[in-house]
């Protein structure tokens, strides 16, 4: 007789789709513990621009993998995978089920599919790449990347300095395009599952994209009213930050930084922030549509919570019947 595998549920979706509220509601109906899958929520003191659950919410519904590092530190997909797997094992040991909630699809991919075997960072090579970027700009280096790794260049914005630098670094170390190495490193799932759990993935997606866009605009306005600019100003005073750090490249923080530097007006900050958030939501939805085995729920439907709970109950019964 084959023993049933331990269960892990995912609740994913674009920004402003209501993931946190639904996760908290589901936690009241199931033996869940919530694990955050959000690359912005790992930073301490970044509360307003990340839409981090407030203290009352976290007191009633604790979230793991929130407030892990300071804004001047880095946190990779490998770090997330290590911490998430440890959290999942801990939750299972307590007789509960992990509910992984968020919208950082790179983290989801790293967790379920594993990480490609790429070389470690080389500070000397990175310094040279950084100096070249300072002289010619990141779009020029993006064009250089496109010459030998078109698939990777297509996936990256010309101003995505962190990932362009990494792709160029990997190529200089190995002589092989990063996209090729990632393909070669696909794990052999026949010998050892990378993610050895019975998994259900639920995605909150909008039936009307315009409504999601209105939610995004309203939420960004609320962040401004709540003191987003002041939050970024305090972080700049407290930590040795620069605009290229991952924390300050988060949507909202990047625009507030530009406003504080006098590069854009407050109105321009709002417009570019809302636009960037919409683009983020578009990328999240594209990933969800392209991923197999995802159960979609209309986040605009008042009965979305009940529908998700029903699917979860059916999934649990299937596992129990194994």
Short description:
This protein has 322 residues and is an alpha/beta fold. It has helices at 19-27, 55-60, 77-93, 105-113, 123-136, 138-148, 150-155, 161-174, 178-184, 209-226, 228-238, 253-260, 266-290, 304-320, and strands spanning 7-12, 32-37, 63-64, 97-102, 198-205, 294-298.
Question: What can you see in these coordinates?
Answer:
This protein has helices spanning 19-27, 55-60, 77-93, 105-113, 123-136, 138-148, 150-155, 161-174, 178-184, 209-226, 228-238, 253-260, 266-290, 304-320; strands spanning 7-12, 32-37, 63-64, 97-102, 198-205, 294-298. With 322 residues, it is an alpha/beta fold. It has a 6-stranded parallel sheet, sandwiched between helices. Strand 2, helix 2 (55-60) and strand 3 (63-64) form a beta-alpha-beta unit. Helix 3 (77-93) crosses helix 4 (105-113), helix 6 crosses helix 8 (161-174) and helix 10 (209-226) crosses helix 13 (266-290). The longest helix is centred in the C-terminal third of the chain and has 25 residues, at 266-290. The termini are close together.
Any key phrases for this structure?
single chain, 322 residues, alpha/beta, 53% helix, 14 helices, six-stranded parallel beta sheet
Q: What is this structure's SSE topology?
A:
Elements: E1 7-12, H1 19-27, E2 32-37, H2 55-60, E3 63-64, H3 77-93, E4 97-102, H4 105-113, H5 123-136, H6 138-148, H7 150-155, H8 161-174, H9 178-184, E5 198-205, H10 209-226, H11 228-238, H12 253-260, H13 266-290, E6 294-298, H14 304-320
Parallel strand pairs: 1-4, 1-5, 2-3, 2-4, 5-6
Helix pairs in contact: 3-4, 5-6, 5-8, 6-8, 10-13, 11-12, 12-13
């Amino acid at each position: 007789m084959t023993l049933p595998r331990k269960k892990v549920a995912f609740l994913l979706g674009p920004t402003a789709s209501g993931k946190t509220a639904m996760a908290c509601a589901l936690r009241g109906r199931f033996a869940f513990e919530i694990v955050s899958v959000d690359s912005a929520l790992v930073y301490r003191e970044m509360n307003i621009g990340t839409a981090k659950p407030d203290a009352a919410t976290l007191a009633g519904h604790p979230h793991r993998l929130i407030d892990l590092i300071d804004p001047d530190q880095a946190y990779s997909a490998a770090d997330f995978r290590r911490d998430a797997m440890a959290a999942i094992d801990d939750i299972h040991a307590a007789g509960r089920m992990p509910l992984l909630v968020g919208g950082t699809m790179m983290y989801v991919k790293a967790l379920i599919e594993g990480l490609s075997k790429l070389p470690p960072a080389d500070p000397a090579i990175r310094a040279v790449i950084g100096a070249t970027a300072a002289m010619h700009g990141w779009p020029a280096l993006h064009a250089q990347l496109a010459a030998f790794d078109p698939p990777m260049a297509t996936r990256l914005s010309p101003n995505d300095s962190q990932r362009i630098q990494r792709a160029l670094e990997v190529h200089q170390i190995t002589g092989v395009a990063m996209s090729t190495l990632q393909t070669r490193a696909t794990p052999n799932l026949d010998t050892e599952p990378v993610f050895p759990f019975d998994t259900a993935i639920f995605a909150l997606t909008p039936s009307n994209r315009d409504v999601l866009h209105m939610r995004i605009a309203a939420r960004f306005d609320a962040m401004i009213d709540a003191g987003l600019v002041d939050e970024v100003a305090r972080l700049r005073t407290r930590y040795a930050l620069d605009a290229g750090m991952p924390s300050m490249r988060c949507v909202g923080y990047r625009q507030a930084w530009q406003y504080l530097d006098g590069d854009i007006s407050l109105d321009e900050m709002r417009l570019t922030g809302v636009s960037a958030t919409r683009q983020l939501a578009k990328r999240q939805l594209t990933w969800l549509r392209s991923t197999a085995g995802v159960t979609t729920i209309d986040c605009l439907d008042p009965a979305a919570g009940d529908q998700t709970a029903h699917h979860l109950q059916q999934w649990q019964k299937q596992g129990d019947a194994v």
